[in-house]
Structure formats: C-alpha cells, structure tokens
Automatic annotation (TrEMBL):
<dbReference type="InterPro" id="IPR023214">
    <property type="entry name" value="HAD_sf"/>
</dbReference>
<dbReference type="InterPro" id="IPR036412">
    <property type="entry name" value="HAD-like_sf"/>
</dbReference>
<dbReference type="Pfam" id="PF00702">
    <property type="entry name" value="Hydrolase"/>
</dbReference>
<protein>
    <submittedName>
        <fullName>MTA/SAH nucleosidase</fullName>
    </submittedName>
</protein>
<dbReference type="InterPro" id="IPR050155">
    <property type="entry name" value="HAD-like_hydrolase_sf"/>
</dbReference>
<dbReference type="InterPro" id="IPR023198">
    <property type="entry name" value="PGP-like_dom2"/>
</dbReference>
C-alpha cells in the first residue's frame, strides 16, 4: 500500500464496479464469446472473434466506446446489437452464479457499512448490469446508491460522480477504482482517489495521480480507521 498524503475521513466512499469490486472476467469472457457467436449467426459479423484483451483493456470506458476499440470497422447498428447481446448474456451468467467478487470485497464492505460509512457505486456500465451484479452477489443492500452511465446518460465518470455528489449533498468522498477514468473523476471533482492495483486490466500508468494505491481491497479498512476526522 502506497500513500502520498494524509487522509481525512470521507462523507462516503464511492466504488467503481469492474476491476474494483467485481472480477469482471469471470462473467465477461464467456459472454463476450457468446456475443460474437450470435453476431455471426445473425449475419452481422464475419471473421474471428477479436482478442479478449481488447475488451479487457477497454474496461472503464463507456460501452459505445469499447466497441469502437474491439470492432472499429463495424457499423453503429452492429455495435448497438452487441450492447443488447452482451447485457443478455451477462445477466444469464449472473443467474448461473459462476461470477465472482474479489475475495475480500464482501467482508470489507460489511465492515465499512457497520462503521456507518455511506457506500455508493459509480460505474460506466449499463444500469441493469451494475444493479444485476450487486444483486446477484448480495451486496446491493449495503449501498446508498448504484449509479451508472447507463441510467443517468452521462458521457464521463467525471459527470457521473458530480451527479452522485450533488444528489446527496456531499463535498468530501473517496473515489475507489482501478482505471484512469476513476482517477480523473476523483481529481476533477477535487476528491481523494484510492487506486486499486490488483485487477491488472490497465496500462502501467493507469493509476497515476491516485492519492493511495492498494493491492488488496481489505486495506481500505486500515485507511479508513487511520484517517483523520
């Protein structure tokens, strides 16, 4: 764990979903291959399925931007059909109960909740996906709000975090996430950023600018307990 400055206890802690709370690849990779199998079946896509790393490396972006990376030559209607299929297969996967949170996530969230900390999610994902993951893994009741770009039609995590803070009248939060979009959201809203360095989806400098880097989710407890009032 690396800390660049003393921390002050926040009014709330806001979490990214993919790569922070949720081991996204446990759900995404099977769904990803099913999407391309279905697109080929429907005559919307030909050729091999693009490398999985293109998808994993784009996590944290808006879905419409992810498809521009994964299949840049395809038309918009193919991307929108891929949106529909990905959500369909991911929701099916959640029902099959094969996906996973990171090991220390449930206990740590419960401990923070028991300390009276307000908890939120801010994700660039689709509404039903974000809420579906939280419900399937039985952590939804711990959160005061599950914010997603899909529900609020925001074009960046910066805007989504500002909407969340305004809705709840908060001026001091911790933004916890694993991608540069999380760091940017925290910095541009003048907030503390806790970078999660355990997912490994991003580039080497993905978390540059974070106030703290953690390599296990459970380290949040010590950070919160040691933070000044």
């Amino acid at each position: 764990m690396e800390t660049s400055k003393p921390l002050i206890k926040p009014q709330a802690i806001v979490f990214d979903m993919d790569g922070t709370l949720f081991q996204t690849e446990t759900l995404l990779i099977p769904a990803y291959h099913n999407v391309f199998n279905k697109l080929r079946e429907e005559g919307l896509y030909t050729g091999e399925t693009p490398p999985e790393q293109l998808m994993l490396g784009s996590l944290g972006m808006l879905l419409e931007d992810i498809w521009k990376v994964v299949m840049p030559k395809e038309q918009v209607h193919v991307h929108r059909r891929a949106d529909e299929l990905l959500l369909q297969f991911e929701l099916q996967g959640l029902q099959e109960a094969t996906s996973k949170l990171y090991p220390s996530v449930p206990n740590t969230l419960w401990e923070l909740h028991d300390r009276g900390v307000k908890l939120f999610v801010a994700s660039n994902g689709l509404e039903h996906y974000v809420k579906g993951v939280a419900a399937a893994h039985q952590i939804a009741p711990l959160f005061d709000g599950l914010y997603s770009a899909g529900e609020y039609a925001t074009t960046s995590k910066v805007d989504l975090l500002r909407r969340l803070m305004d809705d709840h009248g908060m001026e001091r939060i911790w933004m916890v996430g694993d991608r540069s979009s999380d760091v940017e959201a925290g910095i541009k809203n003048g907030q503390t950023v806790i970078g999660c360095a355990y997912a490994g989806f991003g580039k080497e400098d993905e978390l540059k600018g974070s106030d703290v880097l953690i390599d296990d989710f459970s380290q949040l407890l010590a950070l919160y307990d040691q933070a000044a009032e």
